[in-house]
Model the fold of this input.
Amino acid sequence: MQNNLSWWKQFKHDLVDPTHVERLLLTVGEDLLRVIVLYIIARIIIRLALRLSRRLLKLHRNRMDKRRLDTLDSLFSNIIRYTVYFLFAVESLAVFHLNITTLLAGAGVVGLAVGFGAQGLIKDLISGLFILFEDQYGVGDTVQINGFTGTVVSIGVRLTRVQAWTGEVEIIPNGQIATVTNYSRTNSVAVVDVGVSYNANLKQAMQIIEQVMNQLKQEEENVIGDVSIAGVQELRDSDVLIRATAVCAPMTQYGIQRKAQQRIKEAFDEAGIEIPFVHRTVVLKGDVNAMERGNDHVG
Done:
């Protein structure tokens, strides 16, 4: 008890002692200045390291595609930032005379408590390394991950970010990725379905469709394979469905389909070929009564 009172008296004495307060402020100010200098140095190191890693990647641009280079650039950027900021944190603690070894030893009990949480982090890191080394997908690829479809904007050792075409970004821990569908690895197929009237000349319609598709192949660099006219695909209620296909570069099939359908519509209009559409006849209740009265009068 007496020791506690002595400590309290010494603390009050130091608190009101101008010399001690001035010395304390100078010490804290110097320590804060050192931390600021360390932070500036850390930022400079990160910038230089990123510049060096990108230059090294450029040396291999002839042997790797842009997608792979962007993926590695994203990975190296994350590793560099995590490493430098970790070292900055350790050095900042040392400035304030906090021994990191002692802190870690004292946090042993806490470490056991958070150990289960760290399992998820380790799982994310290991899964991220497998994704990168196996080249499952890369930055710029269009993928579907766990049911979410979009373009990969960044890959880290822990997280993958995928942006949908509507703008939202899904942040997915690598350890939670169960299924991946990559739409950017192989060529795609543009499927063009056109319905024509039962009264139309099917041979003429298919010739026009073939001409349009071949013209697109000559004009569009994304049409990289054969054009095929599959012929009559289905006899539907109001039209005959004709299907054409074209092999395209990955993820370009939708644009090719839109252009093909527009040009086929224009060509059909010039040739007088009808593309049928659903007709609906609406009879109002009053009109029905009038029709019934008219029928009775005629009778």
